[in-house]
Amino acid sequence: MSAGEEQLLQLCPRCQYNLRGLPVAHACPECGLQFDRRWKILAGPTSSFRNTGQARLVRGLMIAVAPIVVVATLGPLFLLRAGGWLGWTVIAVSLPIVGVGVWLAYRKPRRFVAIGPNGLVIYQGGRTIQYHLAEIGTARYKVGFKCVVIDIGDETVSLPEYAFFPGAVFEAEACAREINRYLRGTQATDVR
Ligand SMILES: [Zn+2]
Questions:
Q1: Any residues with CB less than 8 A from the CB of 114 and at least 6 apart, and which?
Q2: How far is the CA of 28 from the centre of ligand 1 (A)?
Q3: Could you tell me the distance, in angstroms and rounded to a whole number, from the CA of residue 35 to the centre of ligand 1?
Q4: Measured by CB atoms within 10 angstroms of the end CB, which terminus of the chain is less buried, N or C?
Protein backbone atom coordinates (compact mmCIF):
# COMPACT_ATOMS: atom_id res chain seq x y z
CA MET A 1 0.00 0.00 0.00
CA SER A 2 2.59 2.53 1.06
CA ALA A 3 4.89 1.44 -1.78
CA GLY A 4 2.38 2.71 -4.36
CA GLU A 5 1.44 5.88 -2.49
CA GLU A 6 3.88 8.02 -4.48
CA GLN A 7 2.45 6.82 -7.80
CA LEU A 8 -1.12 7.63 -6.76
CA LEU A 9 -2.94 10.90 -7.25
CA GLN A 10 -1.77 13.41 -4.63
CA LEU A 11 -4.22 16.28 -5.10
CA CYS A 12 -7.92 16.41 -5.85
CA PRO A 13 -8.10 17.55 -9.49
CA ARG A 14 -11.14 19.70 -8.71
CA CYS A 15 -10.29 21.48 -5.44
CA GLN A 16 -6.62 20.50 -4.97
CA TYR A 17 -7.29 18.99 -1.54
CA ASN A 18 -4.43 16.75 -0.41
CA LEU A 19 -5.45 13.12 -0.97
CA ARG A 20 -2.41 11.42 0.56
CA GLY A 21 -3.28 8.41 2.68
CA LEU A 22 -6.84 8.14 1.36
CA PRO A 23 -8.15 4.94 -0.27
CA VAL A 24 -7.64 4.47 -4.01
CA ALA A 25 -11.30 4.98 -4.86
CA HIS A 26 -12.95 7.50 -2.58
CA ALA A 27 -14.83 10.78 -2.36
CA CYS A 28 -12.88 13.99 -1.81
CA PRO A 29 -13.40 15.09 1.83
CA GLU A 30 -13.35 18.71 0.69
CA CYS A 31 -15.52 18.85 -2.45
CA GLY A 32 -17.12 15.41 -2.64
CA LEU A 33 -15.66 14.46 -6.03
CA GLN A 34 -15.63 10.69 -6.58
CA PHE A 35 -12.03 10.09 -7.57
CA ASP A 36 -9.75 7.20 -8.38
CA ARG A 37 -6.20 7.80 -7.23
CA ARG A 38 -4.89 5.78 -10.18
CA TRP A 39 -6.05 8.62 -12.44
CA LYS A 40 -3.50 10.42 -14.51
CA ILE A 41 -4.58 14.05 -14.83
CA LEU A 42 -4.34 15.24 -18.45
CA ALA A 43 -5.87 18.71 -18.18
CA GLY A 44 -6.71 21.16 -15.44
CA PRO A 45 -4.85 22.91 -12.64
CA THR A 46 -3.22 19.70 -11.40
CA SER A 47 -2.39 18.37 -14.89
CA SER A 48 0.72 16.22 -15.14
CA PHE A 49 1.82 18.44 -18.03
CA ARG A 50 1.24 21.77 -16.32
CA ASN A 51 4.74 22.12 -15.01
CA THR A 52 6.77 20.80 -17.90
CA GLY A 53 9.64 23.06 -18.92
CA GLN A 54 7.88 24.20 -22.07
CA ALA A 55 4.63 25.08 -20.28
CA ARG A 56 6.54 27.06 -17.66
CA LEU A 57 8.50 28.87 -20.36
CA VAL A 58 5.34 29.93 -22.21
CA ARG A 59 3.66 31.16 -19.02
CA GLY A 60 6.84 32.93 -17.96
CA LEU A 61 7.07 34.70 -21.32
CA MET A 62 3.45 35.81 -21.13
CA ILE A 63 4.03 37.26 -17.69
CA ALA A 64 7.30 38.89 -18.79
CA VAL A 65 5.76 40.41 -21.91
CA ALA A 66 2.76 41.91 -20.08
CA PRO A 67 4.65 44.85 -18.46
CA ILE A 68 6.36 45.62 -21.78
CA VAL A 69 2.98 45.87 -23.46
CA VAL A 70 1.70 48.07 -20.64
CA VAL A 71 4.65 50.44 -21.03
CA ALA A 72 4.23 50.45 -24.81
CA THR A 73 0.59 51.29 -24.21
CA LEU A 74 1.10 54.07 -21.69
CA GLY A 75 4.07 55.56 -23.54
CA PRO A 76 2.08 57.13 -26.38
CA LEU A 77 -0.41 58.53 -23.87
CA PHE A 78 2.29 60.47 -22.05
CA LEU A 79 3.77 61.62 -25.33
CA LEU A 80 0.46 62.86 -26.64
CA ARG A 81 -0.73 64.05 -23.22
CA ALA A 82 -4.08 62.98 -21.87
CA GLY A 83 -6.77 63.44 -24.46
CA GLY A 84 -4.58 62.64 -27.44
CA TRP A 85 -6.85 60.43 -29.53
CA LEU A 86 -4.06 58.13 -30.67
CA GLY A 87 -2.96 57.48 -27.09
CA TRP A 88 -6.49 56.67 -26.00
CA THR A 89 -7.02 54.43 -29.01
CA VAL A 90 -3.84 52.49 -28.29
CA ILE A 91 -4.90 52.11 -24.65
CA ALA A 92 -8.41 51.04 -25.57
CA VAL A 93 -7.03 48.34 -27.86
CA SER A 94 -4.09 47.13 -25.77
CA LEU A 95 -5.41 47.01 -22.22
CA PRO A 96 -8.05 44.35 -22.92
CA ILE A 97 -5.39 42.27 -24.70
CA VAL A 98 -3.05 42.54 -21.70
CA GLY A 99 -5.94 41.76 -19.37
CA VAL A 100 -6.91 38.63 -21.27
CA GLY A 101 -3.26 37.51 -21.41
CA VAL A 102 -2.75 37.84 -17.66
CA TRP A 103 -6.12 36.20 -16.98
CA LEU A 104 -5.22 33.23 -19.23
CA ALA A 105 -1.85 32.86 -17.53
CA TYR A 106 -3.20 32.91 -13.99
CA ARG A 107 -6.72 31.56 -13.97
CA LYS A 108 -7.41 28.10 -12.63
CA PRO A 109 -10.11 26.57 -14.76
CA ARG A 110 -12.57 24.43 -12.84
CA ARG A 111 -12.27 21.69 -15.40
CA PHE A 112 -10.14 18.63 -15.65
CA VAL A 113 -9.56 15.52 -17.72
CA ALA A 114 -8.32 12.28 -16.20
CA ILE A 115 -7.64 8.80 -17.48
CA GLY A 116 -7.46 5.64 -15.41
CA PRO A 117 -8.49 1.99 -15.27
CA ASN A 118 -12.14 3.07 -14.99
CA GLY A 119 -11.97 5.12 -18.19
CA LEU A 120 -11.65 8.68 -19.39
CA VAL A 121 -13.16 11.30 -17.11
CA ILE A 122 -14.07 14.79 -18.29
CA TYR A 123 -15.20 17.27 -15.65
CA GLN A 124 -16.67 20.61 -16.67
CA GLY A 125 -19.61 22.79 -15.77
CA GLY A 126 -20.00 20.96 -12.47
CA ARG A 127 -20.57 17.60 -14.16
CA THR A 128 -18.38 14.55 -14.51
CA ILE A 129 -18.72 12.50 -17.67
CA GLN A 130 -17.02 9.13 -17.77
CA TYR A 131 -16.27 7.02 -20.84
CA HIS A 132 -15.16 3.39 -20.75
CA LEU A 133 -11.72 2.77 -22.19
CA ALA A 134 -13.20 0.25 -24.68
CA GLU A 135 -15.33 3.03 -26.25
CA ILE A 136 -12.42 5.35 -26.89
CA GLY A 137 -10.81 5.52 -30.31
CA THR A 138 -8.05 7.96 -31.13
CA ALA A 139 -7.30 11.35 -29.63
CA ARG A 140 -5.58 14.08 -31.58
CA TYR A 141 -4.81 17.75 -31.25
CA LYS A 142 -6.32 19.76 -34.11
CA VAL A 143 -4.18 22.84 -34.54
CA GLY A 144 -6.66 24.68 -36.81
CA PHE A 145 -9.56 24.16 -34.43
CA LYS A 146 -7.44 24.69 -31.31
CA CYS A 147 -8.90 21.70 -29.56
CA VAL A 148 -8.23 18.08 -28.70
CA VAL A 149 -10.75 15.78 -30.38
CA ILE A 150 -11.38 12.26 -29.15
CA ASP A 151 -13.38 9.63 -31.02
CA ILE A 152 -15.62 7.96 -28.46
CA GLY A 153 -18.07 5.41 -29.83
CA ASP A 154 -20.07 7.20 -32.53
CA GLU A 155 -19.42 10.67 -31.20
CA THR A 156 -16.51 13.04 -31.24
CA VAL A 157 -15.75 14.77 -27.99
CA SER A 158 -13.75 17.97 -28.23
CA LEU A 159 -11.76 19.69 -25.55
CA PRO A 160 -11.23 23.34 -26.54
CA GLU A 161 -7.75 24.63 -25.85
CA TYR A 162 -8.99 27.90 -24.27
CA ALA A 163 -11.08 25.97 -21.75
CA PHE A 164 -8.90 22.99 -20.88
CA PHE A 165 -5.37 24.08 -21.75
CA PRO A 166 -5.33 27.87 -21.35
CA GLY A 167 -2.19 29.36 -22.81
CA ALA A 168 -0.43 26.06 -23.47
CA VAL A 169 -0.55 24.22 -26.78
CA PHE A 170 1.99 21.78 -25.33
CA GLU A 171 -0.49 20.59 -22.73
CA ALA A 172 -3.14 19.95 -25.38
CA GLU A 173 -0.68 17.96 -27.49
CA ALA A 174 0.56 16.03 -24.46
CA CYS A 175 -3.04 15.25 -23.43
CA ALA A 176 -3.86 13.71 -26.83
CA ARG A 177 -0.58 11.79 -26.90
CA GLU A 178 -1.11 10.43 -23.39
CA ILE A 179 -4.67 9.23 -24.10
CA ASN A 180 -3.37 7.23 -27.10
CA ARG A 181 -0.41 5.92 -25.15
CA TYR A 182 -2.64 4.86 -22.24
CA LEU A 183 -5.05 3.05 -24.57
CA ARG A 184 -2.20 1.19 -26.28
CA GLY A 185 -0.96 0.14 -22.86
CA THR A 186 -4.33 -1.30 -21.83
CA GLN A 187 -4.69 -3.12 -25.17
CA ALA A 188 -1.29 -4.72 -24.69
CA THR A 189 -2.38 -5.87 -21.22
CA ASP A 190 -5.61 -7.33 -22.63
CA VAL A 191 -3.72 -9.43 -25.19
CA ARG A 192 -1.49 -10.85 -22.51
ZN1 LIG B 1 -11.88 17.93 -4.00
A1: 13, 36, 39, 40, 41, 42, 120, 121, 123
A2: 5
A3: 9
A4: C
pTM, entire model: 0.70
Q: How far is the CA of 125 from the centre of ligand 1 (A)?
A: 15
> Cβ(151)–Cβ(183) under 8 Å?
no
How far away, in angstroms, is 49 Cα from ligand 1 center? 20
> For 116-131, what is each residue's pLDDT tens digit?
999 999 999 889 999 9
Q: Which CATH class is domain 3-50+111-191?
A: mainly beta
Please write the tens of the pLDDT for every residue from 135-190: 999 999 999 999 999 999 999 999 999 889 877 788 999 999 999 999 998 876 65
Distance 79 CA to ligand 1 centre (A): 51
Ligand 1 centroid, distance to 33 Cα (angstroms): 6
Centre of ligand 1 from the C-alpha of residue 16, in Å: 6
Residue ranges covered by each domain of the chain: 3-50+111-191, 55-106
> Element (H or E) spanning 128, and its range?
strand 127-131
Cα 191 to averaged position of ligand 1 atoms, centre (Å): 36
